[in-house]
Amino acid sequence: MPVPPALSRPHRRPPNPQNPPTDIDLAEATSFEMACTLAFAGQEAPPPWFAHALEHAIGPLRNDIMSIRNDITNMQADIQASQQRQADSQRCAARAYNWQVQLGDRSPFEEVPWRNGTYPWGFMFHNQPLPELTSTEVVRALDDQQSQQYYQGYYPGVNVPENRNERDKATLIAIGVPAMVAGIAFERDGRRETEKQGATDDERR
């Protein structure tokens, strides 16, 4: 029997279900089963009267498939909205906690999601996971690319400052560290660099 045109090209199969299957897994499996049924329907040479009867029988199936697809789309949108709300709640709670722990030298910072809902700790960037920003020391130890990536995550659509200390200070503020504390952390870092440079100059003399 010839292969129906709908199946003569690679037919998209649903991904393997989770264990146990979710509602989306069941809906996609049902949709795939109906699509296969429709692909084979009408391939035989039916009597003239059969086409109308078949269309009458399959019509509701087509409607069911469209309804299931719409339901899947709506469920995915609801899941994304729920994840975004959860990330927004986590952002508020984590920033409030980080405000209290100040430098994070006694109690580590909590993770603050980016604006788009992404949790950045361990996020793969240039084949390397981003560091967990548990203290001001960790933020100050970021390399240039990591510093830029964190800044872009917390300030999407904003031009990235060239000065790394400025970027990292803004990142500390974004995760809840008071602006004054963040400023002190990098002023101290600047003094250290000045002292190091002065010692180097003395050695050269």
From TrEMBL:
Bilayer-spanning residue ranges: none
Region of interest (Disordered), ranges: 1-21, 186-205
InterPro entries, per database record: Mug135-like_C (IPR013902)
Domain Mug135-like C-terminal: 96-177
Domain of life: Eukaryota
Family in the record: Belongs to the UPF0612 family.
Stated name of the protein: Mug135-like C-terminal domain-containing protein
Organism: Rhodonia placenta
